[in-house]
Each structure stands twice: as structure tokens, then as C-alpha cells.
Amino acid sequence: MENNISSNEQEVLHLKQRIDLFEQTLSLMILLNEEERFLSAVMTLCNELATRFQTSRVGLGWLEGKYVRIQGMSHIEHFEPKMGAVQGLEAAMEEARDQNEEIVFPSPVEQWTAIVRSHETYVRKFGSEHIVSIPLRINDNPVAILSCERSRPFTIDEIRALRMICDQVIRRLYELKLSDRWFGPRLLGWIRGKLSKIFGFEHTFAKLMSLVCVALLLFIIFGEIMFRIKAPCILKTDQLSYIQAPFNGFISKVEVQIGDLVKKDEILLELDTRDLRLKEAEVVADIHQFSRAEEKARSQDYLADMRIAQARLEKAQLELKRILYLLDQAKVKSPFSGIVVQGERQKLLGAPVREGDIMYKVAEMRDYYIQLNVDEQDIHEIKIGDTGKIAFISRPEQKFPIKITQISYTAQVKEKKNIFEIRAQLEGTPQMWWRSGMSGIGQIDVGNRKIIWIFSHRTIDFIRLYMWW
User: For the residues 222-244, what does the mean pLDDT come to?
Assistant: First the structure.
């Protein structure tokens, strides 16, 4: 009678454990179903298992290519994949995946024989005292590994519970993993699934890639596209004025700097005039002195002294005119409306200058043209009248049409390469944001060429040049 009661109690206890296990699995599935992203579901799974089984760490690794990569760990949002502990745990997961079986370390006496070298290494270096790794399978193929660590051993019931949870959650995780991929892999997966009905179940992707490669190869050999020659270009204008220093001195005031728009007769800078003012005062005093000397000599009928005084007076008056002219030139003005393309405020202010030194360059905002520097390997392909497009570095999204108007017949050496300068006319209305000196990239259309020639002609030319006899 007592044995029957004891047996019934064990059955009731066993049934209760199974109900609790089912309840735990169901509640966990409810939490995972609420997640819309794969990594969020992984973190939820790891954190819940760590709490329910009182583990120090729970990690989930996913098969990516030929290797297992950790997707998440309990209570750790960000981790470094190159950390030694992470790489050691991945090695232990790969050990379980390669054998496609659960690994418990240290192994209980009754466990079957399994290779646990990576688990032993991980526990010795990084892990807790006990670890269990359970494969998560799709169609009997392991696609993920769940690893749990803690300081006390895992019981058989706990391992059974983990196994049941893994069997239930893998399908949801697998669906989230597929839906979380970016557009390219999802599209390839969809195409592969559709084409599998036509080409069979085996090697569908390889067959499709073979057809694509053959089609692409035929297109490269026999197809033609527009051949465009690329060359660096600069926006230039012939309407350029060099603003020079009118006399020796110092710059006292700077009004504009490079990039500023200026109007005609607008003051660009001012030179220091204190020395000229002192000279002006001296010359004015000399004029008064020579005037009185002339009048005195005239009144005394000293003809020679009068002539000398007149000559000195004329010289002083000429010197005064020169000084007044320089004072007027001290305020340097723009000769026309345009933009300052050279001249920095910080370098000019207070700087000494000599007569004829260039202080500014002002470009008039009209008559723009493009100068392209074409490599000597491509110059024979270009002729006057060819068209193309350019894009400036400042606004690469905007393209502007050009037409070749002039080709230089003399090469120049730039950056240890021979280049030919080509002048092109800009088609269309000039933009307000254009500035002389802007650089960019130009493409010149020279006609259709076979694709294989476009990608191979430079190599063929090199072989012909250096391997002929």
C-alpha cells in the first residue's frame, strides 16, 4: 500500500515538473514572439535563461558560413568579437556543432564519450566551473549553439529543460534571422527558392551563378558601351586681374579675403600712409620756402637766385603731386566686379610690401572655360568637337556638359607624368556658386568601344610597348 502511494506521488511530481517545464517554455515563447528583431530576441532568450537557471553566463552562437559566431550574451549588450573569452567560447560552440551533440563539462560518469578539448580549455582560462553546450537544429542540421555556464553542475532535468526550450525557440529565431538580413541576401534567398522548382533541389544557387557568369562573360566580350576618358579639370577664366602694391610700405587695413565677391572700385585694402603724410608736410613747407625765396630774389632783381628758386619750387610741386598720387593709390580698389581668388587676410594684414608685389588676384565672373589635363595615353582618342561632362568636387551630384574647343600639341610634365592641356567650353548658363580655380573630374565621350577592350587595352598596350622585339 505504501509502495503504491509512493509511486503515485512520484508520478504526480513528475507530471508537475513536466507542466512547469511546459509553462516555462510557453512563457519564453511568448516573450520571443513579441520581439521583431533577431538580436533583441537573442538577448531576451539569454537573459531569461540566465535568470531561470541561475547561470553566470548564457551565450548563443549562430553558424555563419563555416564558423560559429556569437550573436549575444546575457546581460552584455556590446562585446568585442576579438576578445579571447569570446573566441574561446566560439571554439567550444564549434566543438559541439561539429559533433552535433550536447556537451556537458565536466562530463558526468554516465555521459557518452565526446571530445571536450575546447570546452576544457575555455573553462580553464575564462569560464565558470561547469558549462553545457546544446545544438539548435533546423531539419536535423545544427544552425546555432546555446552555451550556459555556472559554478554548480547542471542536473539531468535542467539539461532536459534546456533541450526542450532550444527545440521550441529555434524556429522563431531562424525566422527572425532570415527576416533581419539586408535586402541583397533576402532577394538572393527568394530567387534561389523560386529557381529550385525549375533546376531541382541540388546545387540550385551554383547553377544560377553559372548562368549569370556565362551571360556576363558574353556581354563583356561582345557588348559595347560608351568609352569615356577621365581627366582632372579646373574652372578658369581669362578675365583675371593682378592687384599690385603701388609703393613700398606696410598694409594697415584689409577689407576682403579669398572667396569674397567684390564690386568695381570697392576698396580691397589700405597701405600705411604715415610716412607719405610726413613727406607731404615737408614738401609743402619747402614749397612755401622756395616761393618766398623767389619773391625776395625778384624784388632785389637777383635774376640767378630767382631762377634757382623757381627750379626748386617746380621740383617741390612735382614731388607734392607724386605724393598726392601715392596717397590716392594707398586705397587699393578692385578694377571690376568679380571674386577674389588669391589673397588671405591673415597673411596680408601688417605685412611689408614692395612696389609691384602681387597682393590680390581678382577674377571676373564671366567667360568661364574648363581646362582638362589628359594623360598622354589617351590624348590620341580625343578630337575637337567631342562632348562630355564635368563634376566639381564641391558639388559632385551636379553634372555640366562641355565641348572640346582646343587641344594643346605640346606635353607638359606634372607629377612626373606627361599631360596635355585641353580647353573645353561650358554649355549652359554659368552658376552663381562657380569660382575660378574650382577643381573636379571630367569625362569625355569618345565613342562606343567593346567592354573587354575598355578593361584590357591598357594592359595590352603595356605588353606591346615593353615586350616587342
Answer: 89
